[in-house]
Amino acid sequence: MSESLLGMELTEIREALGPGHPQFRAKQIYTALYRRRVGDLAQVSTLPAALRQELGGARRVGLPEIAQRYQSVDGTRRYLLRLEDGRTVETVLMPEAERDTICISSQVGCPVDCKFCMTALMGLERNLTAGEIVGQVLLVARDNGLLEDTRLNIVMMGQGEPLLNLPNVVKATRLLTDAEGVGIPQRRITVSTAGIIPKIEELGREPVRPRLSISLNASTEEMRQQLMPITRKYHLRDLLAACKTYPLRPWEKLTFEYVLLKGVNDTDADARRVVRLLANLNAKVNLIALNPGPGIPFETPDPERVSSFQAIVRRSMGCFIRKPRGLDIYAACGQLKRNDVMGSV
């Protein structure tokens, strides 16, 4: 199988071309891949025909293939994308009046085993490459005419634990934010983690990195370990200490995600404990009422309970209720598990 170009940085494309071609050819290819979002090297008309033919035999662009699209009544679109080894991964487009958001995956499946998440039922199949991460953005943008859309937000909150694939996530972020390439500002890209403490510290040392969002989901150590077994290794006290020393940029806050489960972690007492946990951090909280699904042994709390929880937290810090998108096509947070539903397009 020939090697794909997608996922290569400019220096790597130069090296792949070799000394027999002028260096500006690498820049032409880089621009075509990431700025123009071409899907076929034959479309790069700035390259000589002989070079296009040469590259066509040895290199592929490497975009994933759309295996299926699912269209929600609210405009959300879920994509099942087939990778070159036949595995599949899911990506979601959430259009809104003021912006468009693409939720992308970082792994095929997920190893974290959160008890309220349908993706956890898949287990982990493998990490995605940087090219496969970037390819989700480019393909969905092309498919929806978002090639020049400066309002595009990217959230790495699909399948997988991004910080357990950190080298590829960081490389993908460099490619997505490069002004000479895809050109999405760092402040418009967010990575979500269950709280892999050593990797949080490593991410903080990267000069180019996305915003950081942390899945909290409980107000006590004991409950968090029950809901998120991986946190038995990464304790809440140590996580909060890592958050306190995380090098936030001037425009940045930490985001804490909190999935509300009826009768489990949604009481007023839980809300007050969350406030105490986050009191010394420059942070905001996003509340997510559970998005239900087959195999998940929890229920969604009543709207009044969600509002009460929000009101308590909001007295001390920003607290927002995330509106579910694409529930009818299993595209909402925690629902990405290759579900075949009506509404495919």
List the helices and strands and how they pair.
Blueprint: E1 3-4, H1 10-17, H2 24-34, H3 49-58, E2 59-60, E3 65-71, E4 77-82, E5 88-95, E6 100-103, E7 107-109, E8 124-127, H4 130-143, E9 152-156, H5 166-177, E10 189-193, H6 197-204, E11 211-215, H7 221-227, H8 236-245, E12 254-260, H9 268-277, E13 283-289, H10 303-314, E14 318-321
Helix pairs in contact: 1-2, 4-5, 9-10
Defining key terms:
345 residues, alpha/beta, 10-stranded mixed β-sheet, two-stranded parallel ribbon, 10 helices, 14 strands, 30% helix, 20% strand
Span between termini: 30 Å
| Average pLDDT rating | 89
Structural class of the helix and strand makeup? alpha/beta
**What percentage of amino acids are in beta strands?**
15-25%
Explain the overall architecture.
The protein is α/β, with parallel strands linked by helices. The chain contains ten helices and 14 strands. The chain has helices spanning 10-17, 24-34, 49-58, 130-143, 166-177, 197-204, 221-227, 236-245, 268-277, 303-314, and strands spanning 3-4, 59-60, 65-71, 77-82, 88-95, 100-103, 107-109, 124-127, 152-156, 189-193, 211-215, 254-260, 283-289, 318-321. A ten-stranded mixed beta sheet has the order 3-4-5-6-9-10-11-12-13-14, covered by helices on one side. It has a two-stranded parallel ribbon with strand order 1-2. A two-stranded antiparallel sheet has the order 7-8. Helix 1 crosses helix 2 (24-34), helix 4 crosses helix 5 (166-177) and helix 9 (268-277) packs parallel to helix 10. The two termini are 30 Å apart. The mean pLDDT is 89.
